[in-house]
Amino acid sequence: MTDRYAPDDHLGERTSLIAAAYVILRRGDEVLLQQRAGTGYRDGYWAVIAGHVDPGESAHEAAVREALEEAGVTIDPAALRPLATLHRFERGGPAVEQRVDFFFEATQWSGEAALQEADKAAEVGWFRLDALPDPVVPHERDLLDLLRTGAPVPPVISLPL
Predict the structure, then answer these.
(1) 3-class SS at 144?
(2) What share of the chain is helix, strand, coil (3-state, %, to 5)?
(3) How many CB atoms lie within 10 A of CB 99?
């Protein structure tokens, strides 16, 4: 018996998911948001720290890496609190629209959060959950609204695009 999966003869028939890790840096009732710019996706919208999971990397490792790359903060992976996993998909759509997003919350880190990637964000700031700027990337806004109200965050959310 082996602990590896057998080669998959049906790979072309299966859904491939693009994975991303999101980090909600939280300071009391405030969250860090950056205004997207120059990315080609929702430029002008406010967003939490996020990025794709690289090959050979876990979602936790991606979250830690993205926090350092985008905000200049260092997070211990043990300080990441899993919030939700969001499955976003377009029925019958292209592979690039089949996504799984891992959301984490961090309340402890080292370093001062600041804009690090001026080619991908115009500005960064701390915003109260009850006074978020407009617009916020819709699927991120949904999760931030749940945090604001104190409503339970479902561990898994599935949304067609």
Answers:
(1) helix
(2) 20, 35, 45
(3) 19
Per-residue pLDDT tens for 51-93? 999 999 999 999 999 999 999 999 999 999 999 998 887 777 6
Residue 145 CB contacts under 8 Å (≥ 6 apart), including other chains: none
Burial of 38 (0-12, 13-18, 19+ CB in 10 A): exposed
Is-contact 50 23, C-beta < 8 A?
A: yes
Q: How far apart are the C-alpha atoms of 101 and 43, rounded to whole Å? A: 19
C-alpha to C-alpha distance for 41 and 49, rounded to whole angstroms? 14
Residue matched to tokens 């690090």: 116
Residue 35: CB partners within 8 Å, gap ≥ 6?
Answer: 44, 45, 46, 47, 121, 122, 123, 124, 133
Evaluate the omega torsion of the peptide bond into residue 7 and state whether it is cis, within 30 degrees of 0. Answer: no
| DSSP-assigned beta bridge partners for residue 26 | 31
Find the length of the chain. Answer: 161
3-state secondary structure at position 86: strand
Q: Read off the pLDDT of residues 89-129 as tens digits, 9 standing for 90 and up.
A: 777 766 667 789 999 999 999 999 999 999 999 999 999 99
Residue identified by tokens 């695009």 is 161
